[in-house]
Amino acid sequence: MQIDRRRFLALSGAFLATPALAADRADLCRRALHGWYRLVLELVRHTATYSPPVAARAFAYVGIIAHESHVGLVPGPLTLAGQVQGLAPLPAPAPGLDPAAVLDAALGRAMGDFFGNTGPSGQGAMQAMARKLAAEIDRDLTPEVAAASRAHGLAIAQHVWDWSLSDGGAVVENLGFPFDYTFGEDPKDWVPTSDIRIQQAPLLPNWGKNRTFALPAPDLCTLPSHPEFSTEPGSAFHAAAMEVYEVSKALTEEQKTIARFWTDDPMLSPTPPGHWVSIVLQIAERDRMPAERAAAALAVLGVAIADGFIGCWAEKYRWNLVRPVTYIKRYIDPNWETLLITPPFPEYPSGHSTQSGAAEVALTAFFGDNFAFEDATHADDGLAVRRFSSFREAAEEAAISRLYGGIHYRFGNEQGLVQGRCIGAFAAQLKTFA
Amino acid sequence: MRSAPRLAALLLPLALLALALPALAEPVVPVFTDETATAGLSTVFEGEWEYMVGGGVATFDCSGDGFPEILLSGGAAPSALYLNRSARGGPLVFEKTGAITLDAVLGAYPLDIDSDGLMDLVVLRQGPNRLLRGLGDCRFEDATEVWGFDGGTAWSTAFAAIWERGQDWPTLAIGNYVDRLAEDFPWGSCTDNWLHRPDGRRFAAPIPLTPSFCALSMLFTDWNRSGQWALRVSNDREYYKGGQEQMWHLEPGQPPRLYSEEEGWKRLRIWGMGIAAADVNMDGYQDYFLTSMADNKLQFLKDPATGQPDYADLAFKSGVTAHRPYTGGDLRPSTAWHPQFADVNNDGRLDLFVAKGNVARMPDFAERDPNNLLLGTAEGPFVEAGDRAGVASMGIARGAQVVDLNLDGKLDIVVVNRWTKAEVWRQTGESGGNWVQVRLRQDGANRDAIGSVVEIRRGDKVERHEIVSGGGHVSGSVGWLHFGLGDAAEARLRVIWPDGSAGDWMVIPAGSFQILGRDRPAEAWAPG
């Protein structure tokens, strides 16, 4: 079944608007999962703190909460406690709990925990979603079962929230831009690329020190050096910059479309990690995946992309490489302009490429190789649906899009995929089902 | 494309301005006295989610004494019109009237719609907008239906007006925000802006300005000096999908048409909340300050010769990013609303006031967010003086007007705050220079000559002021146009009237009020 973004949202909305099928508790679980995730994609877009690394972190925790809400309640799901770093065994469910009420309560609590700093519209939307889902889900439950189920959901969310506070990424000040930062003095070193005052220091320079999830340590998937920095024509580095420049001068309409499809700008989209979450939600909708399966996929994906950003950020600040726009304006063409807005942090490797590589490996392990899907993530923003024959194809398109956009060298994209695939392999090893 | 030489050319006039004007090494910091407690303004902009934007103020003279009255929007509470009882140069005194008590008001703009010499009002509301016809002596009647105006039912948050060529009735642009019935999931629910064109001496059915992207400010501007005014729209990216900042062609008799990328319009997506226009670098073209969150934009036309509306953002280089509080200890990013260029210290250089305040209680943004008063300097970049001037209020500001409330030649400031009383400051220190104030008058339609341009000589340069109705954050004024002169004893200026005809250059003595009538010598006026 082909499904575009509008239909996807309409269906999600319909879940909330139509009366529950009394006997179909599984469908209620799906409604809760899709309803809250529909909202979380908007909260990421509309909460100023949610730059891509921060968003990926939230997606990991929310995914784990969704997954753990099913453990012990429906056949199959296995806890991630003991599999991801620092997650202690979660509260076990009492007999007779309702999975839908557990999931709804857990995700509702997670929204408030992880998006408590969103604006008044987000706050209102969270409250409205909670009211609607609770009314629907609890309608056919006894008050005792509803209360006990919700208490368990809250306990799951509380447990994960408590765990999250010690990972190094719980507090984000000044939208992630440090008040003080010491710049490198070498010509190869990153310098600010925009005239936005708050972005005169790079985003989240310490994010690479955060606790990882499935990746045992951030330095397990490190990268070799980029080509040696040089301004000499004919050097590998100069050639890489020239490629960015030349490609930008001859972009086809398809290349522009690809660049814009994967630009996934913070505050204007669900961000790059949210793009992959959106893909999974669309697949889950298309295939009418049981909520526990979809939640497991979202948990694995969340772990992969969160680890991807931690590993990538460690490398970015180890290499601290200048962006193409800086190099090209300095040494090639002072009037050059990029198609996309250059993000405010070092170049090597590409963050989107890294997390896409991680997502590719994790999702391929979950769904299988050559798993075809359509991606309508940006349909509401006027971008056409794109079709992919595999997660690998999508990840590679995401990576090359950064070259088309003029914001990364080819080697930054390619090595990003390499690093991401290395990181994603750890997430892929998580055992989510018996 | 932006080139380094062109960039320098955009900035150079800021520096040359220093050479062209009497030497003032540092800007004179104006001194304001907070007269909120005594001025008699008691209206509070109330309301919750559906009043998180808005909060406008309109200033205009409806009593005929030349002193500006104040209309304060009340949001969920009644709005109120205050008569100006101030004496010239004296403390600010206002008398609350029952003339306008509409509720659900987000903002208002004065506009003599029927050109009868009595100021009318366009009232933007949460729900049906209203047109109030002035009857004299600050009395008003609802003329919405009589004038055929469809007030709609939307959440109206932006306004601009112009008299299109050949029309004796204005064209009104109304900007609308999110669908207020979509509170549970408001994203992507922006409702259509409307363009109300004339049908004789009333309004035709509105034309939707589709696509619309949750406008919070609109402004007609002759950006390329073609004589054909375009409509700039600043949009709030918080709620639109696929949106951006916009500019519309508005050609007589033709449907409105968006400027396109092929024409040079560049995609910009911000939390657009207010527009202020001025010829900051005195290149003869309007520059635009756009308020947003955590950043603000100051756009200069890159190269007029290309004919393309392609702008460079020089806010950082000009010192007007105003991205975080500069005093009060809250280091989180700012939220900016009403911007207004004006020469508050009369030194002959444009200054910039920005009203600041958190949307509500958003923890990622400053909750103690002082208003900015950015002074133009001899060196080019603006410098912050809000705290030294005494206007660094931590109120949750929205709309504002910088206007001479007691007609002493020194600009005063009134600010609408969310949930607390409007604040008003009287400028009480020594003036940093001379000034003139003028009003434009023409017979027949459009008596206040909206769509005129006042050009004033600054040394060997000419500063170009577009006379508009619109912009800011749901706040507007019609009345005396104030120009600081520095040490100059007279102003040399001329008016280019709405039909494009240029008046003669005039010499206006400093310290005077003048009524500039079309094809007539300037007419001196004095308060009282």
Automatic annotation (TrEMBL), chain A:
Annotated coiled-coil positions are: none
Q: Please indicate if the UniProt record lists DNA repair as a keyword.
A: no
Hey, what's the signal peptide range on this chain?
Answer: 1-22
Ranges of residues in domain Phosphatidic acid phosphatase type 2/haloperoxidase: 298-430
- Record flagged with keyword Thylakoid: no
From what superkingdom does this record's organism come? Bacteria
User: Which key words tag this protein in UniProt?
Assistant: Signal
The protein's matches in InterPro entries, at most eight in alphabetical order, are given as: PAP2/HPO (IPR000326), PAP2/HPO_sf (IPR036938), V-haloperoxidase (IPR052559)
Listed PANTHER family: PEROXIDASE-RELATED, PHOSPHATIDIC ACID PHOSPHATASE TYPE 2_HALOPEROXIDASE DOMAIN-CONTAINING PROTEIN
According to UniProt, the name of this protein is: Vanadium-dependent haloperoxidase
- The source organism is Rhodobacter calidifons
Automatic annotation (TrEMBL), chain B:
Give the record's keywords alphabetically. Answer: Signal
Q: Which InterPro entries match?
A: Crtac1, FG-GAP, Integrin_alpha_N, UnbV_ASPIC
Per UniProt, residues of the ASPIC/UnbV domain are 449-505
Q: Which residue positions does the secretion signal occupy?
A: 1-25
Source domain of life: Bacteria
Q: Under what name is this protein listed?
A: CRTAC1 family protein
- Originating species: Rhodobacter calidifons
